[in-house]
Amino acid sequence: MKATERKLVLVTRRTRLQELIVKHHTLAQARFALEHLGADLSDYLAEDQAYAASLDLLTETLQAWGRHHIVERSYLPNYLFAPDDIVLALGSDGLVANTMKYLDGQPLVGINPEPSRWDGLLLPFQAQELAALLPELARDRRPTRAVTMAEAKLSDGQTLRAVNELFIGPRTHTSALYDIALGERHESQSSSGLIVATGLGSTAWIKSVVTGSLGIARALHGQGLAADYPARAWDEPSLHFAVREPFPSKSSTTELAFGEVTAGQPLRLRSRMPEGGVIFSDGIEADFLRFGAGMEARISVAAQRGCLVV
Q: Does residue 144 carry a pLDDT above 90?
């Protein structure tokens, strides 16, 4: 296959304004709902216009290139990517992460639709740069960064990958009940769930969990504890887990509250929740695995790695 015959796949997302219109059916009704609450629609409009302008530029580039698909984020779980596809994501860092977990080594280009709005750690490019970038991408001459992903595999064969983190716990604000094992250590726990983070995710949710725990410990026992949870390399071949709010009782213990997970030492959990137990990744609660009573989950480093174009 010639380089120019490679298919481009552009992943998009709805803007906040589009989400409001879906909810309220028309722009006028969305405006009325916001203004009734004392909010201003102007920022929603500005975001939507900036996104539309970037999308128009990208669409022109895609049409000039040839083979391409445009896929809205909600269809990602069912979209079949070809091994030689070049994948583009137009949106926030979260959209890049959500796209990467469905790929198997295809190069992923994060495109920032509005640099003044989005920090864009995973969005190094803008729409107007794509045309000049494509020839290098198509010939695999553009540098990339490897990204370690986490994977949850259930005893019924279902799997879910994560670029930042996996959450295992209750779907609502109730207690998560499960048995947990890492190597030779194992115990029964009751908590509000646990986070398993990658190196890329080390500056996200797990940092909040660990920082909060350290702050409470310092308040109770003095200032001698470390003050921060350090960031880790994106390609580090291990994961870290942290249990949120573990509760000690006659039937639950709290010794296994933090640790490292590797391919050779996975984390194993067995649900004791009759209903409401879930596993979701990267903050996308709608895309989840049911983790009901008796189900076992094996959490480890995914065999696949993300490939982010830089």
A: yes
Residue 308 placed within a domain? no
Of all residues in the chain, what percent are helix, strand and coil, respectively (each to 5)?
30, 30, 40
The answer to the question of residue 310 being in a domain is: no
More confident residue, 216 or 189: 189
Domain assignment present for residue 61? The answer is: yes
User: How much is the average pLDDT of 128-148?
Assistant: 96
- State the residue for tokens 């909810």: 23
Q: For residue 117, how many other CB atoms are within 10 A of its CB? A: 14
C-alpha closest to that of 252 among 195, 183, 176? 176
Q: Which residues contact 211 (CB under 8 A, 6 or more apart)?
A: 228, 229
Buried b (16+ CB within 10 A) or exposed e, 11-39: bbbbbebbebbeeeeebeebbeebeeeee
Reported pTM: 0.90
How many helices (H) and strands (E) the chain has is answered by: 6, 16
Checking if the pLDDT of 270 tops 60, the result is yes
Count of domains forming the chain: 2
